[in-house]
Amino acid sequence: MQSKLERKEALSTISIFLVIVTLFSAVFHYAIVNLYPSRIYIGALMWCPALAAFLTLKIKGRKISSLHWNWGDWKHIRMSYFIPALYATITYAAIWLLGYGNIATKETIVTWATEIGLMGIGTLNTTIALIIAIVLVGTVSVVRAMATTLGEEIGWRGFFIFELRKVLSFTWVSIFSGIVWATWHWPLIVYYGGNIALEMTTFYVVIVSMSFIMTYYTFKSKSVWPAVLFHAASNVYIQKIFPKLTTNVEGSEHWLGEYGVMFAIVTFVFGIYYWRKALQEKL
Question: Of the candidates 241, 236, 238, 269, which has an alpha carbon nearest to the alpha carbon of residue 256?
Fold first, then answer.
């Protein structure tokens, strides 16, 4: 049980972090919206939470080594890759079965394989090319993505949720950190989005649901790395792999992708499962 003084200190630390991350992020949000090419600033934006955490620690006289750098249990690392791959698979399997999108044709698969250089190796069987493409993107691209998700996760999971835990329960840590995390993305959704109201709604559901899962594995492992891997794997599977395996059906675009209704439904179910699991384990 935290003392009144410890709670006050934690709230002060949380407030400083949120102010700094807002100020840092505003610079790159402005660049993304107003400068071209805008996407080159996204990587810098994703490191703003880490920089805010570092500066907050400096202000508070604490060491960067306190940010839970240990690797953690391999079980949690494995699950942090497997769960995003699983919920992305379920999302698109449901989309295909319900007719909101179609499984990619042979020509589409060949095009994707050619884009990543597989067909240049020689004549490959389409099935073999597909398997190699999924394995290649699901490993190399995930490792590459971790370079930017690390910046976010040092801030959100390595620092922020551990401070929140000093004053909030697991449930409210997950909800509050998820809302803050989703709100931090708001300018990007407005800038890149189409149906803003729908996409904002589904995105908040997705992010808060993911927050429950990532908070669970972060607290279980006492490590930032499961969240880094989870975030990277989720981005790759939902943004780079399954969209390549799916052809759109006219009129059902709102069911697809990371802002899609189906992804929100599936991640919500996963989030409920991990919320109940955390409560049962008294996390």
Answer: 238
From first to last of the 283 residues of the chain, give the pLDDT tens digit.
568 888 999 999 999 999 999 999 999 999 988 887 777 889 899 999 999 999 999 999 999 999 999 998 999 999 999 999 999 999 999 999 999 999 988 888 888 888 887 765 545 677 888 888 899 999 999 999 999 999 999 999 999 999 999 999 999 999 999 999 999 998 888 888 788 999 999 999 999 999 999 999 999 999 999 999 999 999 999 999 999 999 989 888 899 999 999 999 999 999 999 999 999 999 9
Helix, strand, coil tally for the chain in percent (to 5): 80, 0, 20
Give whole-number Cα distances, 255 to 90, 95, 162, 248, 251, in Å: 13, 7, 34, 10, 9
Q: Is there a domain that residue 246 lies in?
A: yes
Write out the E strands in 60-177. 101-103
Report yes or no on 65 lying in a domain: no
Q: Is residue 183 part of a domain?
A: yes
Say whether the peptide bond before residue 37 is cis (omega within 30 degrees of 0): yes
Q: Which residue has the tokens 């975030």?
A: 231
Looking up tokens 């590459």 gives 144
In a domain, 7, yes or no: no
Looking at the structure of the chain, the number of domains it has is 1
Full residue range of the structural domain in which residue 88 is found: 70-280
Nearest partner of 84 among 227, 273, 255, judged by Cα: 227
